[in-house]
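In this section we turn from sequence analysis to structure. A common task in structural bioinformatics is to predict how a protein folds when a small molecule is present, because the ligand can shape the pocket around it. The inputs are simple: the amino acid sequence and a SMILES string for the ligand, here nicotinamide-adenine-dinucleotide. Study the lines below before reading on.
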Amino acid sequence: MPQFTKTVLCIGAGYVGGPTMAVMSQKCPEVKFLVVDINPQRIAAWNSEELPIYEPGLMEVVRETRGRNLFFSTSVEDGIREADIIFVSVNTPTKTFGVGAGEAADLQHWEKTARQIAEVATKDTIVVEKSTLPVRTAEAMARILCANSKGLNFEVLSNPEFLAEGTAIQDLNNPDRVLIGSEQTALGLKACEAVVSLYAHWVPREKILTTNVWSSELSKLVANAFLAQRVSSINSISALCEATGANVDEVAKAIGTDSRIGPKFLKASVGFGGSCFQKDILNLVYIAQSYGLNEVASYWRQVVNMNDWQKDRFVKKMIRAMFNTLAGKRIVLLGFAFKADTGDTRESPAIRVTRLLLAEKASVVITDPEAIPNAKKEFTENELSQIEFVNDPYEACCGAHAIAVMTEWKLYRELDYQKIYQRMQKPAFLFDGRSILDPAQITEIGFYAYFIGRGENV
Ligand SMILES: NC(=O)c1ccc[n+]([C@@H]2O[C@H](COP(=O)([O-])OP(=O)(O)OC[C@H]3O[C@@H](n4cnc5c(N)ncnc54)[C@H](O)[C@@H]3O)[C@@H](O)[C@H]2O)c1
């Protein structure tokens, strides 16, 4: 039996818990990493050759460390008993009921975990919030842990995760920064150092930022709010470009070369998606409101409003272009994942677009290289009866009236659009919701096409 120096437990084997612990186990071979989850199918998949999430490079890391110092199991309580450090990476979706419904974070999974740790732990433990949580959650967690403790000391830290799906392994290997918030007491700082020492195996010290707990919690929400705000900002300008004849890509380039603005996150699109941006902004909105900061709340709320408007605007363009009726028309969505290189469909713009198309009685066909299984889970039985799922994009486009690019998969940049055009009904329409295709080439083929923020010939 190998001798490990300590045991790190991660509760929640999702998009964050799995990849994060896989990379940590690779970098810290002397530490044992246990990843637990209440979902037995998920754990079984982590222990198989078909991981529960698609993430480039993840399988290679898991193959290297699984069974060596990385273990996946459903034994949450055994894990808590053994752990020196517990990362809590459970899901914290937007609340759908009661006070704060539609905005506040639903903390039921998180609180259950806190109570379980308090009940089961047998030694002093460091508890690290990895989930994105409202500011001051750590305080509540510390109260739950202390109220139930048997003379044990629990230090609660905040270590939000900044990885982006699709590039998670790259982001974990080479993070812009690691943020760790702790209480500024002797015990808090000691606990902080224990977590710093894990990351210091591969992250340069100057990139490991240590702050107080509240700054750390709030920084994660603010980071996502700023990123989403850039998308909504450029999307608002895309509408103005279409109205004025400006080209949003040219505008983005012109402003992005200003070093104060920078070029990233300035791609106009049908909108942002993913499990985090909307949820975290709404969370920020809720927190601002709860402190009576209504102007702050409505400022950030507008980022989400703009995102919804952009999706609706995209579908309205389709309706108008296709002679104000989509009834019975075969419309193919190229891509369903919320972004390329992931199978994750949570809050994908394609969901709202599909629903709006179904409301118009269109016949919707969905294709995606990784996301079809998750896409099927986004709809009701009744909706599913009106949607066709096809793996092969060429087959999906056969007989179609229109195609809409919903995800920027590399695969869709490289399709033979001439071949697709030939197989479609005429006039053939193309709506590029991700600005990945060359307008000149597409219109040359004969498509009537719409490119967000770059004008149209529909
Ligand atoms: N997905 C991202 O890109 C990303 C990035 C940064 C931060 N985050 C944050 O990280 C957190 C987790 O996100 P995710 O995408 O990994 O979610 P996820 O839904 O993929 O995974 C959460 C897992 O926690 C498990 N779980 C829930 N309650 C549990 C309990 N009581 N005991 C054991 N397991 C339990 C669920 O079964 C699920 O497998 C969220 O707060 C999210 O905001 C996500």
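The chain has two domains: 7-203, 226-451. As an exercise, try to locate the residues that line the nicotinamide-adenine-dinucleotide site and compare them with your own expectations.
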